[in-house]
Amino acid sequence: TTIHVANRNPNVAFNSFPIAHYNGDNFSTMHGEIQDIWYLEGVLAGLYTESDKIGFVGSIPIPDVIVAINAFTLGVQSVNNTAEVTVVFTGSWDDTGLQTVSVNQLIDGGADIIAPFQDSVKTIIEICASRGAHPVGCSSDAYARDPGTWLSACVNTGDGWIPYMRAAIDGQYETANISGSFDVQLQDLATYGDSVPQDMRDAVDAVKQQIIDGEVYVFEGPVYNQAGELVFEEGYQP
Questions:
Q1: Do residues 113 and 52 touch, judged by C-beta distance below 8 A?
Q2: Residue 118 and residue 90: Cα distance in Å, rounded?
Q3: pLDDT digits over 104-132, tens only?
Q4: 3-state DSSP call for residue 34?
Q5: CA-to-CA distance for 23 and 177, rounded, in angstroms?
Q6: Of 21, 20, 37, nearest in space to 156 by CA
Q7: Where are the beta strands (DSSP E) in 59-116?
Q8: Which one, 45, 125, 165, 235, has least CB within 10 Å?
Q9: pTM exceeds cut of 0.70
Q10: How far is CA 159 from each of CA 111, 156, 165, 167, 178, rounded to the nearest angstrom?
Q11: Max alpha carbon distance in the chain (Å)?
């Protein structure tokens, strides 16, 4: 692993962008919290959908993926309480065959927006373009692939970690443990698609500012589990 390589090379600065359990010496971690950006994607999807049916193609049900699904769904519900989010898991990060089956089934079921948490979304974007559905993306800006059906995406940005890289290059490296979203400039929205009207863009941007200002907190209580039992009281912020 990267940690082991870092331990064997103490004079080299390492920066891990996925979260890691270790942080120290020459090994830094910089993790973009994903709930805020997926919430914004949900707001956009909830405003844009006409069928009130939205599909989510998950990969593997690990914590980050579950966080993304929950945040996205809460974003949808915050602006559209009649929309439904249907989730399927492919069990893979980039199986184009399973992506094809999953997206077509969701569109056949009435979904007009598809949200993927996959390493590669090329196939999903192409299917959406051919069938008139609208994709939101994950981790990369794919606007150029089909500007007409593309909505936007959550993307990692370099603004937050570039100063640490420059410091290391200048011989002033210090161990860092950075975690956050817009506040530390590690996450942001990608380019809006051509079909997204200005009023929707303004509405999503306004929610983004509310999150930055602390007026909107994605996982604020009350939160109930699947059995309907209260897990977090109203107003609780984990």
A1: no
A2: 9
A3: 999 999 999 999 999 989 999 999 999 99
A4: coil
A5: 7
A6: 37
A7: 84-89, 113-116
A8: 235
A9: yes
A10: 35, 9, 11, 14, 13
A11: 57
